[in-house]
Amino acid sequence: DGEGDPGVFTATALPGDPRLLPTLTSAFLGTRVFRDILHAAGVYSGAAGDTHRADVPSPLGLRMAAPGARSPAQSFTLDTWTGTFSHTIQSPGYTATHQLYAHHSLVHLMAFSITIRRLDGSTHPITVQLQSLFVPQSQDLDLTPGPDFQGAHYIHGQTLVPEVEGGPRPAVHMLWTPIPRRLTLGGEERERCWQFLTAVAGSEEEAKRSYSAGLALAAAGSLHRCHARAWAALRRGCSLELDGPLALRQALQGCLYYLLSAVPPRDSPGMPFHGISPGGLSNGTRGEDYWGHVFWDQDTWMFPNILLLYPEAARAILQYRIRTLEGARSNAQEQGYEGAKFPWESAATGREVCPEEIYGAQEIHVSGDVLVAFEQYYCTTQDQKLFQEDGGWELVEAVAQYWCSRMVWSEEEQLYHIRGVMPPDEYHSHVDNSAYTNAVARCSLNFATDMARDLLLPVPEEWEERARKIKVPFDEERKYHPEYDGYSPGEPVKQADVVLLGFPLMHPMSAEVRRNDLEMYEPVTDPGGPAMTWSMFAVGWLELKELQRAWSHLEKCFSNITEPFKVWVENSDGSGAVNFLTGMGGFLQVILFGFTGFRITRSSLLFDPAFPDNITKLKVSSVSYLGNKLEVTITREEIRMEVTETSQDPPAFPLEAVLESGQRFPLWEGQSVSFPTAPGWIQRSPS
């Protein structure tokens, strides 16, 4: 069906596994449709490795039923354009519709409505049942009822166990519209809509403010419209469109829906952001989705897409890491090192909360991954304020110090070594000189050095010396990068590891070495491994213009996308995290960086498009670069660019596109420029 809307997913039955139901999430609240719990951002309960998202009982956990209707037709629809899920019962004389959404302008509010509409001239009452799972209690919160407010019931309480001893126990305040067992459309009524609100916040004032604001919008008949408008604006600003197979276009819109549901609104001091876990805010109960902890999945796999499309949200993600810097310093100190070591699993404090010690002790590349995100952000925004005034520099410096203290000098090789690590490939541990870990450490030190110079700060000599002399294993004979000292070709690998040297790290190497790395690791990477792996092979083959090979890897991702709501699973056998945003982030990077050839460098944004045969056109509505928003449309024949918006404060840098052939095209706001598809770059205009 080439005509289908790629952003609306409809089914007549729900998947058998409730984990595959779609999620409804804002920056602050998340749930899965028909589930009896929801989660609030940053609200974890449990000490150290047991800390998990606290279950908040959810008034939205209910199903609508039509008693007495003989086998009514039912449908379930996720509309990713309006950020709304609906369940419709179609009876001979009427339709009943249950609509649910996480409100995107009032982020402390979730809502649902039930609408009954008469289709014939009958005058008898029509009743639907509401089968609710809601019980106002929780295993994670000490909830106490409070007085009703504007017709809403009220409960409040704190989490039971802090993450660190003596640490804060976040509060939850919830107001909700009481839910009757049934709703009836009177004999004289043609149509009626009932609205039900749930407000959840960290304080009584905020919960009441949000609930009142929601009631006022509901009374004016604009509660849903106001949400849909805010959500549509976000979707428009981050829009990616492809001309290609419907399944690919649906997967793309599904990924954008789930990933954009998880991003913060523009960074606001009153609402700190709490990071994005692999399965998002709707998941993370104890025993599910890694307990809702934040990994490198956020910084390496999701962040680059958010950065190019919505840098203000990217900044808020970095601020989550800045806020947890003290916890990262404690982690380094506990292991006997200087500076800051970001945890393998992070929750509210930045202290290590991974339940199994080996990962926190050995999978140390995550600190470098965090810094790569800071570097990409700085290169695309030149936002010095984040570093000078908002704590970014202290974080960069602390990670550089950590890497210096984590290295040892090898007299024999006259190089620095990092020993006893677990690389991204978790099938191996206690290895020396993981190629990826050492390469990312080198990136950290180079970035810290460049950043210090830009901020006119002194540069410690050891940063430059160690970046120059750190060992990144290389096999001169076979011309490829062994995964670590002593890796023998053919040994199985869990997931993308060495291939990440080419992208995102852009570690210097020839096209021949890049090809050899891909050839060496492609056949030995576990086909049952996590979903983001194949996207990085796809990016590598696109770089080398091996378009069909790239497509065959991108196609592997489809075995991780479930029907009918395009919810991703971590592993193709259905195990691991669900609503796997990490895999979606990798998939989006194939489109946003692979098909376009976009690469973020210190001085420019490179482009070098490459499409597999079945894709004819890609349009990115708004690539953000140095304060400009660019609409970029690419076909095999031509590239068209237009600056659609420029920031005033701080003023945007004027841009130009330069082709490798030397041709230059100034990019002025409101003027469309096109040129034959060829490699080049976008940079600050020298004028």
TrEMBL record:
Keywords of this entry: Glycosidase, Hydrolase
Listed SUPFAM superfamilies: Six-hairpin glycosidases (SSF48208)
Keyword flag Ribosomal protein: no
Record's keyword annotation contains Hydrolase: yes
Domain Glycoside hydrolase family 65 C-terminal: 599-645
Ranges of residues in domain Glycoside hydrolase family 65 central catalytic: 282-488
Coiled-coil segments: none
The enzyme's E.C. designation: 3.2.1.107
Alphabetical list of InterPro entries matching this protein: 6-hairpin_glycosidase_sf, 6hp_glycosidase-like_sf, Glyco_hydro_65_C, Glyco_hydro_65_M
One function term, GO molecular function aspect: protein-glucosylgalactosylhydroxylysine glucosidase activity
Any one GO CC term of the record: cytosol
GO biological process: carbohydrate metabolic process
Function: Catalyzes the hydrolysis of glucose from the disaccharide unit linked to hydroxylysine residues of collagen and collagen-like proteins.
Similarity annotation: Belongs to the glycosyl hydrolase 65 family.
Protein name (record): Protein-glucosylgalactosylhydroxylysine glucosidase
